[in-house]
Amino acid sequence: xxxxxxxxxxxxVEHAFLIVKKKFGYSKVAYKGIYKNMHRFxxxxxxxxxxxxxxxxxxxxxxxx
Length: 65
Fold this sequence. Notes:
mainly alpha, single chain
């Protein structure tokens, strides 16, 4: 039971990394400075969250028109 809980959390977290690597093509880190790399990570993971949100059929909540 404990391993099942760990694996369910791990799969949710690793899904964001899959989107960042495959969809946005960010597989290797180039050293451009810590500030620039952290800024890029923040933008990429925010974008991955938006992709996962839209894939969950929540467009109507996302677009407040």
